[in-house]
Each structure stands twice: as structure tokens, then as C-alpha cells.
Specification:
The protein contains 9 helices and 8 strands. With 340 residues, the chain is α/β, with parallel strands linked by helices. It starts with a helix and ends in a 10-residue tail after the last helix. The structure holds zinc ion.
Length: 340
């Protein structure tokens, strides 16, 4: 009796499991780009940023101990997610020797952190997502410049984008073109990490479709407090009308942020187009978009901390970058620099 009962139970369990598996695989098949975008959440971004912009990272000064910790955090994330390194021997660090950082006194070796998802149909065409993970360190009194917005926000955004694409790839919905996740060093002291990458590219620059760069996307600038559902875009139409049009269409269809082009004006006195890492790609005629929230009262102050980030807005902006990347990676034709 006992034996029989066990057998019956065993059969029930098996059939139950197989039914579940069938439903599950059907569910996975039906997952859409919106479902993957929705895995990018304010909770996950906040969890990462409170660690990444903590005092423990000592302001992530290029070459300093705190920055090494920050680099390890990124690398460990990619390893845990099963996202591979693009360099030989599975190396996630693109080493940059100290003497490359010419404007820095007592410079030390530093590294770009890189991870890679290979395209399923056009693996040689590379989309580069970038965000700088260095910041300005500590002051003489030991106060930490946490750089939560600058550029912790863009950095943790890239982690979430990578995770979403990796999940899609595992389910057979991987990007057709390849995506390189490029966490650059040395930005605050002169855009060195991105300069080094474009002079020593892991993948040929002629195969680099575009660069989407994120530098400060977690805050609301004072002039936008009344209408905070916004993002500034810079550079999208400078080299490629096509990139600009794709970016606009994706936002309209999936996200609906107000896209503000104020700082894209060629006569804008702030000259932001030249002031972050995308510029090293643009000067090589690679189409770029720079995502930016504008400056605010805590910009480059010790008060740029994780508690001041608007995480829901950050998630929405990161989802915009994810959806734009998805479109560029999966559309039929490659984005071209049609304005050259
Ligand atoms: Zn920055």
C-alpha cells in the first residue's frame, strides 16, 4: 500500500512537472522587448548604486584603491551573470599604463572594464555602450566624492541593460548585432579611458555601429523640477539622421520621456558634446548619443550621493537606452553615418 501510494505520487509529480515546463517554455517564447525592459527596475538600480557610490569606493579616483574595488564590483557582476569578457583569456580589464594619463600627477595604472554579448546574426557589427566609472576621489579632509549621479547612475544602468540582454539571449532572443559594455576610466581627468579605447579598440572602429554614452542620468536639474519626465540628448543627429530618427521613434513607442535637445545646439556655451566619452567616438566618425540629466547643485560636490537619486526616473531613462540599443541591434540595416 505504501509502495503503491508512493508510485502514484511519483507519477503525479512527474506529469505535473512536465506540464509546468511546457507552459514555462511557451511563456518564455512569448516574452517581448518590453518584458526584458521591465527587468530594469528602480529597486535593482538602487541596490547597485548604494554599493557602487558608497564611501567604501573612496570616490573612485583613477588608479586609486577605491577605483580598483569599483572595477572588481563590475567584473564580479558580469561573471555572476555569465556575461563574457571580449578580451582573450577571459580578461575583463583593458589595462592602461600610468604614463598614458598625462595630465595627472603621480598617475597609476588603471583599466577600462569590458564585457560582451555576441550578436546572433551580425556578430562583427558592434554597438558600444559606455559610461565612466571613475570619479574625483576624496578631499584632504577625507570627505568622499561619491559620484552617485556622476557617473554611478550611468554605470549601474549599464549593468541592468547587460542583464536584460543576457536574459533575452538565454531565452533565444539575443541581439543580432554584438554589444560591448565599456566602463571607461580616467574620464574626470580628461576622457582618457575612451581615448585609449578608440586608439586601441578591441573591435575595429569601422565595425563599430554607434556609441551610446551615459553620463549623469539619475537626477533632475533645477530648470526641470516642474516637468521631471525628461532627458537631455546630445549629438544624436550630428553624424547620423538615421540614429536620431530611430532614437525618437523608440522613445515615442516605448518610453515617452520629453527629449530635450537644448544642449545639442552647436552654439550652446556649455559645449557638452565635447565633454564626455562619446566625443572620442564621434571624432572617429562613429554616430553617438549622449544621455544626460543636466548639471545640478551637487555636481562635483561631496553631496552627490545615492539617496538623492530619483530611481523611478533613472529606471525609465535606462529603459530608453535599452530599447534604443535593442532597435539598433536587431533592425535590418546597420545605422550609418549618413551626414558625413
Ligand atoms: Zn561624468
Amino acid at each position: 500500500m505504501k509502495y503503491l501510494l508512493l508510485t502514484t505520487l511519483a507519477v503525479l509529480t512527474v506529469s505535473c512537472n512536465s506540464a509546468q515546463t511546457t507552459t514555462k517554455s511557451a511563456e518564455i517564447k512569448n516574452l517581448t522587448r518590453i518584458d526584458y525592459a521591465n527587468t530594469i527596475t528602480s529597486e535593482d538600480l538602487s541596490k547597485h548604486l548604494y554599493i557602487f557610490a558608497s564611501d567604501d569606493m573612496e570616490g573612485r579616483m583613477t588608479g586609486a584603491e577605491g577605483q580598483k574595488k569599483a572595477a572588481a564590483y563590475l567584473k564580479d557582476f558580469y561573471i555572476a551573470e555569465g556575461i563574457k569578457a571580449p578580451l582573450e583569456d577571459g580578461d575583463y580589464y583593458q589595462e592602461i599604463p600610468a604614463d598614458y594619463f598625462k595630465r595627472m600627477r603621480k598617475a597609476k595604472d588603471s583599466e577600462n572594464v569590458v564585457a560582451f554579448i555576441k550578436g546572433s546574426e551580425k556578430p562583427d557589427e558592434i554597438i558600444v555602450l559606455s559610461a565612466h566609472y571613475d570619479h574625483v576621489g576624496m578631499d584632504d579632509d577625507g570627505n568622499v566624492y561619491n559620484g552617485a549621479d556622476d557617473d554611478g547612475s550611468g554605470t549601474v544602468g549599464m549593468l541592468e541593460i547587460a542583464q536584460a540582454f543576457q536574459m533575452a539571449a538565454k531565452n533565444g532572443h539575443g541581439p543580432k548585432r554584438s554589444i560591448l559594455f565599456l566602463h571607461v576610466t580616467g574620464e574626470e581627468i580628461g576622457l582618457y579611458g575612451s581615448k585609449f579605447y578608440t586608439e586601441n579598440p578591441i573591435f575595429p572602429l569601422e565595425n563599430t555601429v554607434c556609441n551610446l554614452n551615459t553620463d549623469m542620468i539619475g537626477r533632475i536639474s533645477p530648470e526641470k523640477v516642474e516637468n521631471p519626465n525628461y532627458i537631455y540628448l546630445i549629438g544624436s543627429d550630428r553624424l547620423s539622421q538615421e540614429l536620431h530618427d530611430v532614437s525618437e521613434a523608440v522613445n515615442k513607442e516605448y518610453i515617452n520621456l520629453e527629449i530635450d535637445y537644448t544642449f545639442n545646439d552647436k552654439n550652446d556655451p556649455n559645449r557638452f558634446y565635447y565633454r564626455s566619452d562619446h566625443y572620442n567616438f564621434a571624432k572617429n566618425n562613429i554616430p553617438i548619443i549622449f544621455y544626460f540629466n543636466g548639471v545640478h547643485e551637487d555636481y562635483h560636490k561631496i553631496t552627490d550621493t545615492a539617496d538623492k537619486i530619483d530611481y523611478d526616473l533613472l529606471a525609465k531613462r535606462v529603459q530608453l537606452i535599452f530599447q534604443t540599443t535593442w532597435e539598433i541591434a536587431n533592425r535590418e540595416g546597420r545605422i550609418t553615418a549618413d551626414k558625413l
